[in-house]
């Protein structure tokens, strides 16, 4: 198993970090509200989002400039590519 694979496995097994403010906000979410926000974002700058997703090579070279990635022991799930895969790819697949 590679180091990156081990980190992804650890990410999937770790305990969630709970934040009372976020938890309260999540309780207010509904599928309709989520869809409204996604449509608003895609409506405001659809070309920018589409270009970013299509042009990104998912090579990870930008990770070294990402404070989130660096502050989490270079865990690939915290890098820009990992974050895009966990958010926009899932949203756009739907």
Automatic annotation (TrEMBL):
Taxonomic superkingdom: Bacteria
Ranges of residues in domain 4Fe-4S ferredoxin-type: 47-75
PROSITE patterns on file: 4FE4S_FER_2
Identification of the protein by name: (Fe-S)-binding protein
Protein source organism: Ammonifex degensii
